[in-house]
C-alpha cells in the first residue's frame, strides 16, 4: 500500500496495547489528515494480562492470547511495517529499522513528522542471577507453558515464593506528583499467588500456606493504596499465605531458594518472579529519554523539548505503575494532541485533561477475581477493592470484546465495568 507523501507522516513504534491504541486514537481524532505507519517486530498483539489466567486454566496462551494485528490496522487504513527497530535519530527525525520477515535484510532509515514511542519495556529476567536454571514466570507464553510443565511433572510440594525484583525508575523530568515505585507492576504477583494456590488445591498438591509473597517495597502493590492493600493482605493472611516485605531486590536464585539484596533468604522449590521493567537499550542516552531510558513527556504525553515526539504505555516515564490500563488512557491523550496539531480538534478538545487511574482486574482461581480502582498513587482519593465472580467474568469479557473489536473497547466498556463492580459488589 503506497503512502501519500504529501500528508504529515505519523510513525508509531510498537504494536501492542499502547501502539495499536495510539494509532487507532490518532485515526479517530485526526481522520484522514495524516498517514499513519506502525512498526512492530511481530504481526500479532499479545494479550499479556490474561496469560497467567489462561495458563492456570489449562490453555496455551500462544494459541488463545494472540490477536491478528494486520487486520485490525487495515480497518483504519494504518500501514504496517514488520521490522526490528534499531534506533532513533531525534534531530534527523528518522527511525532505523531492519525488516525481520526473512533474515539478511539491510538496515533502512524511515523519516517521520511525528513519532509515537510505544515500545513497552524489556522484562529483564537476564539480569537475575540463576533465573534460567531456577526461575519461573508467566509474562509470556513460553514461560507460562514452562511453569505449567514444571508444576505438572516436577514439583514435589516444597515451598514457593512469588514476587518482584527492584524496579529502577528515572528522575529526569519526573513531576512532583509521581512517587518512586520500588516494583513496576505488582498486580501480577498477587494474582499469580492466588490463582496458583487454587491450582495446587484442586490437584491436592498444596495451597496458600506453601506460598510466600515478597516485595521490594514497604507494601506490595502500593500503587493500589494502603486501604486496598491492607484489605488484600488481610484476606491473603486469613487464607494462609505468607508475606515478606522490604526485601530491596533479588540477589540470586538457587536450587534451594531465593536470596534478597537485604541479606535475607527464603527456601523455595519454586521461584516465580517478575523482574525489573527496563527500557530498551537503544532508548537510553537519547535527548528525549530519562537517565534509565524511559521517554520523558508532559501530561499530554509529548516530549517538552521535541514536540513531535510522543510516548505512551510502558515506554513512557510517566507510566508508573507499568499497567496496560494506564497506557490505554494515555493513547487517548496522544490521539487528541496530534489531531489538535493537524487542525482536526479544537484546542479545548485536544488539551482535555488526563486523570491517571490504576485499574487492575486479577484472577484468583476458581472463577473468582479481584478488582482494584485507585487514584491515591497520583494524589487522588479513590481506593476501591472488590472480590468475587464479577471481576473474573469481566476480565474474560474485556479480552473477548477487545479481540472481537480489533482492539477497540467501546467508550462505555470501562465506565460500565467500574459502575457495575463498585455498585453491585460489597466493599
Ligand atoms: C504477567 C503480567 C500480567 C499483567 N496484568 C495486567 C493487568 O491485569 N492489567 C493491566 O492493565 N496491565 C497488566 N500488565 C501490564 C501490561 O501487560 C503492560 O502494561 C502492557 O502490556 C504495556 O503495553 P505497551 O504496549 O506499552 O508495551 P508492550 O505490551 O510491552 O508492547 C511493546 C511492543 O513493542 C514491540 N517492540 C519492542 N521493542 C521492539 C523493537 N526493537 N522492534 C520492534 N518492535 C518492538 C514489542 O514486540 C511489543 O509488541 C501485566 C503484565 C504482566 C507481565
TrEMBL record:
Record carries keyword Oxidoreductase: yes
Keyword terms: Oxidoreductase
Annotated InterPro entries: FAD/NAD-bd_sf, FAD/NAD-binding_dom, SQRD
The protein's Enzyme Commission number: 1.6.5.-
Residue stretches making up the FAD/NAD(P)-binding domain: 9-145
PANTHER family, alphabetized: FAD-DEPENDENT PYRIDINE NUCLEOTIDE-DISULPHIDE OXIDOREDUCTASE (PTHR43755:SF1), PTHR43755
Protein name, as recorded: NAD(P)/FAD-dependent oxidoreductase
Amino acid at each position: 500500500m503506497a503512502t501519500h507523501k504529501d500528508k504529515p507522516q505519523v510513525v508509531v513504534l510498537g504494536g501492542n496495547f499502547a501502539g495499536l491504541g495510539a494509532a487507532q486514537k490518532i485515526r479517530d481524532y485526526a481522520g484522514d489528515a495524516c498517514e499513519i505507519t506502525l512498526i512492530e517486530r511481530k504481526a500479532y498483539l499479545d494479550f499479556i494480562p490474561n496469560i497467567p489466567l489462561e495458563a492456570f486454566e489449562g490453555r496455551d496462551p500462544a494459541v488463545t492470547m494472540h490477536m491478528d494485528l494486520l487486520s485490525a490496522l487495515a480497518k483504519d487504513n494504518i500501514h504496517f511495517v514488520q521490522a526490528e527497530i534499531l534506533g532513533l535519530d531525534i534531530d534527523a527525525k528518522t527511525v532505523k529499522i531492519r525488516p525481520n520477515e526473512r533474515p539478511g535484510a539491510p538496515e533502512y532509515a524511515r523519516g517521520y513528522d511525528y513519532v509515537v514511542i510505544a515500545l513497552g519495556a524489556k522484562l529483564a529476567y537476564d539480569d537475575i542471577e540463576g533465573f534460567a536454571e531456577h526461575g519461573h514466570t508467566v509474562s509470556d507464553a513460553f514461560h507460562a507453558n514452562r511453569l505449567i510443565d514444571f508444576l505438572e511433572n516436577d514439583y514435589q510440594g516444597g515451598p514457593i515464593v512469588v514476587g518482584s525484583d527492584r524496579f529502577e525508575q528515572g528522575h529526569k523530568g519526573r513531576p512532583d506528583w509521581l512517587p518512586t515505585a520500588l516494583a513496576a507492576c505488582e498486580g501480577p504477583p498477587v494474582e499469580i499467588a492466588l490463582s496458583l494456590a487454587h491450582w495446587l488445591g484442586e490437584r491436592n498438591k498444596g495451597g496458600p500456606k506453601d506460598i510466600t509473597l515478597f516485595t521490594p517495597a514497604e507494601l506490595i502493590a502500593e500503587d493500589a493504596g494502603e486501604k486496598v492493600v491492607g484489605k488484600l493482605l488481610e484476606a491473603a493472611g486469613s487464607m494462609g499465605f505468607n508475606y515478606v516485605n522490604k526485601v530491596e531486590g533479588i540477589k540470586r536464585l538457587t536450587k534451594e531458594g531465593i536470596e534478597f539484596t537485604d541479606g535475607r533468604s527464603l527456601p523455595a522449590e519454586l521461584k516465580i518472579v517478575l523482574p525489573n521493567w527496563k527500557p530498551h537499550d537503544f532508548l537510553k542516552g537519547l535527548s528525549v529519554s530519562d537517565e534509565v531510558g524511559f521517554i520523558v513527556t508532559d501530561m499530554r504525553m509529548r516530549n517538552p523539548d521535541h514536540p513531535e515526539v510522543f510516548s505512551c504505555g510502558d515506554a513512557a516515564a510517566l507510566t508508573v505503575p507499568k499497567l496496560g490500563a494506564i497506557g490505554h488512557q494515555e493513547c487517548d491523550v496522544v490521539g487528541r494532541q496530534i489531531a489538535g496539531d493537524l487542525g482536526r480538534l479544537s484546542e479545548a478538545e485536544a488539551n482535555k485533561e488526563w486523570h491517571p487511574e490504576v485499574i487492575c482486574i486479577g484472577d484468583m482461581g476458581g472463577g473468582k477475581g479481584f478488582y482494584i480502582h485507585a487514584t491515591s498513587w497520583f494524589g487522588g482519593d479513590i481506593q476501591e477493592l472488590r472480590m468475587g465472580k464479577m471481576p473474573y467474568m469481566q476480565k474474560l469479557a474485556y479480552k473477548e470484546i477487545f479481540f472481537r473489536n480489533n482492539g477497540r473497547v467501546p467508550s462505555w466498556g470501562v465506565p460500565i465495568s467500574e459502575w457495575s463492580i463498585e455498585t453491585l459488589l460489597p466493599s
